[in-house]
Design brief:
The chain is built from eight helices and no strands. It has 133 residues and is an all-alpha fold.
Length: 133
């Protein structure tokens, strides 16, 4: 995650892939798949990200997987499914319910190098999924 938050998804991806492979039946698998899907989306592999994030979202009670799925689907203009994923994420974590709230959260977690990637892949997708403010 450190590499991801430093704006280096290409360096983080092999670690995410190894982690997801190593926990086939672990309760942390949805979280690890969410990380992998997030990394894929940050590298522009929208279709691969959607596939992984759908799997992560199916078994997760953590808000990151549906939020990232909403962004990926929104980026692809799959508005109905994107909106449903966004609603699920906000129900799980109401503080992530606005674009400004998300941007502030990301800025507190990440280095400035991540912000252009976040704005391009996530913020645009979340806007298209219906997130405002």
């Amino acid at each position: 995650m450190t590499l991801l938050y430093c704006g280096q998804p290409e360096a983080a991806l092999p670690h995410f892939e190894a982690g997801a492979r190593g926990v086939a039946h672990d309760s942390q698998r949805p979280l690890l798949l969410g990380n992998l899907g997030t990394g894929r989306l940050m590298l522009g592999d929208v279709d691969g990200a959607i596939e992984i994030l759908r799997e992560a979202n199916a078994d997760s009670q953590h808000p990151a997987a549906p939020l990232m799925l909403a962004a990926a689907l929104g980026f692809k203009s799959a508005s109905v499914e994107a909106s449903a994923a966004l609603r699920r994420a906000i129900n799980l974590c109401p503080s992530w319910g606005t674009l400004s709230g998300m941007r502030n959260w990301v800025r507190r977690q990440a280095r400035p190098d991540l912000m252009p990637i976040y704005e391009h892949w996530f913020e645009r997708g979340l806007q298209r999924a219906g997130m405002t403010g």
